[in-house]
Amino acid sequence: MDPQVFFVVLCILYSILFFFDRFFKVFNLEFGDHIFRISFQICLHYPYETFLRKTGFSVELMRLKWHTTFFNRSILRLGNSCCRIWLIKSFTIGVMAALFLLPVGIILLFIAIFNSSSSSKIVEDSALIDSIKIEILLPGINLPLEEIGYYITTLLIATAIHELGHALAAVLEDVPVTGFGFHFYFCLPLAYTEISAEHLNALKWFRKLRILCAGIWHNFLFTGTCYLLILSLNFVATPFYNLNRNIIVTQILTQSPLIGKGDKGLYERNVITHINNCKVIDYDTWLRCLYKTLQSRPGYCVSSDFIRNNDESIEVSHHGPDGTFQCCDEKNEKLCCFEYIDNFGNGAPVEIPQYVCLEVRRTLEDAYDYCTSHGTCNIGFCLKPLLRNITTILSFKRKTIDHKGLKDVIYMGHPVDVLRTVRISPFVPKHSFVTPEWADAYVLFLKYNIVFNLGLSLISSVPCFGFDGHHIAGTIIHSFLINRITEKRKREFISLIVSGLGTLFLVLAILKVLWLSVLRYLF
Asked: Please, what sign has the CA dihedral across residues 211, 213, 218, 221?
């Protein structure tokens, strides 16, 4: 579903739910008779109130809430099982992990705010380089709206795992758990756990930290689990896919310059093996090979007979408006001006000119091989195309899933156009009933879980109002400064300053992402 359509439909659904909720709750018939009003209350109002009370649902404007005590016994049973000792040890390690992540989260926020090498500087070639960046992720800003389903599902899982950690740790420390639930703020799902604040504050500081840090620890463990599942892909996918051997085209956008035109265009389910003389085995090599075509433009080894028989050079060669040398008719897009690279030792005939005009496809099809980096050829003579700085020649070698060879697809343009309009997958199916989209969806789901669970564990450790880090920092300040600062108000003031600074850093990081998105939109 298109993202805009998704949001419109979601708004309509929320509006309908809110309207009927108000209607069943507060509707009053001013002009109806007494019997009709009583009938309305008996048939609609009271049953609806009973339904909400039994199910735990509540409806507000653009917000849904669900609360339940259904899982209380299961959590209590798990906390008092034979694994109790191991769980307590695990949550003790979780305290250490959370205390380690607290300064790490603050440092990463600093990097996200003050890192000048952000994506605000738009360089076309940089779109081909896949690098690790630290920034706050926001759907529709730096997360693609097309993946909103992954975003909602993963965030739902991450918050549920987080709250499960708090609940399980609370049971182990004999703190009553009164219920669980979910808030849906428009399309943002958040889980929560209700525990007794009175019993929690009565605990000693380390036992209290076990509960406060349990959610962070659970997210961290789940991140590791998803990472191990990704590492096991080579073993799990082997019966169904050829992985990291070649790539397969899964989608070609309608505006793509490579879209299928007879046997000269690219099609879905084409298996790409090479880009020019660069072998493609996965997404990283796909990016690297595309970038390589700009770094070092290929040269082609052709025979002198081919040059003499196919040269279409115009009589008056000249430099074009962009400074490139032109020896072809600019109206004919199939032609390109090539420069002969003379290595002074290949015995080239004297009559081969320095610049020749040849048809690109015929030249690539008749070429013996690619020139070496020094412009030499074992057979034939080296010709290099004269192109603009943003243009290169890409030759895609391809085959079918059944390993039948197909005609090369040749494109003269910018590699970024290919990157933006062609979707590929490293999962080449071994069977006709298997599609690469299944494996891609599985990997993308695991990656979202890694990013969101690790991000939630880091962001929750930051001392920010409403986050676990706020309560963790407050507990540490009250426990370790009690002998030096006896007044509770002063300790609370210090805790307030620490959480205020953490909140400020988080807000600045979010504002930076929004500002950069505005710059991208304008420029």
From this structure: negative
- The pTM of the full predicted model, rounded to 2 decimals, is 0.80
* Angle of helix 205-231 versus helix 436-461 axis, rounded to 10: 160
Residue 66: which of 162, 192, 182 has the closest Cα? Answer: 182
Distance in angstroms (rounded) separating the CA atoms of residues 183 and 189: 6
Burial of 357 from C-beta contacts in 10 A (0-12 / 13-18 / 19+): buried
Residue 465 token pair? 């109002």
> Which of these, 254, 256, 294, lies nearest to 275 by C-alpha position?
294
User: Helix crossing, 72-79 with 148-172: angle to 10°?
Assistant: 60
pLDDT band of 326, cuts 50, 70, 90: confident
How many angstroms separate the Cα of 178 from the Cα of each of 76, 170, 195, 251? 11, 11, 6, 49
Q: 334 near 264, Cβ under 8 Å?
A: no
| Cα–Cα distance list, 361 to 256, 365, 366, 411 (Å) | 19, 6, 9, 9
Do residues 491 and 478 touch, judged by C-beta distance below 8 A?
Answer: yes
DSSP 8-state class, residue 373: T
402-424 confidence digits (pLDDT tens)? 888 888 898 888 888 899 899 99
Which element (helix H / strand E) includes 297?
A: none
Structure tokens at 441: 């969806």
81-94 pLDDT tens trace: 778 889 999 999 99
- What is the number of helices (H) and of strands (E) in the chain? 16, 17
Q: What is the DSSP letter of 27?
A: -
| Segment 265-316, tens digit of pLDDT | 889 999 999 998 899 999 999 999 998 888 887 889 998 889 888 888 887 6
CA distances from 410 to 260, 339, 363, 384 (A): 12, 19, 11, 16
Q: What are the residues facing 64 on neighbouring strands?
A: 59, 184
Q: Which long-range contacts (CB under 8 A, 24 or more apart) does 379-382 make?
A: 379/301, 380/301, 380/302, 380/303, 380/304, 381/301, 381/302, 381/303, 381/304, 381/307, 381/340, 381/341, 381/346, 381/348, 381/352, 382/299, 382/300, 382/301, 382/340, 382/341, 382/343
The span from the CA of 77 to the CA of 69, in Å, is 14
Question: With bands split at pLDDT 50, 70 and 90, how would you rate the model's confidence at 329?
Answer: confident
The conformation of residue 237, written as its DSSP 8-state character, comes to: S
Measured CA to CA, the distance from residue 312 to residue 18 in angstroms comes to 72
**What is the DSSP code (8-state) at residue 147?**
G
Mean pLDDT of the region 103-122? 70
Q: Is the dihedral of CA 354, 357, 362, 364 positive or negative?
A: positive
Question: What DSSP letter does each residue of 444-494 carry, written as one string?
Answer: HHHHHHHHHHHHHHHHHHS--TTSHHHHHHHHHHHHHSTTT---HHHHHHH
Dist CA 468 CA 346 (whole Å):
72
Q: How many CB atoms lie within 10 A of CB 288?
A: 17
193 within 8 A of 171, measured Cβ to Cβ? no
Find out whether 62 and 16 touch, Cβ atoms under 8 Å: no
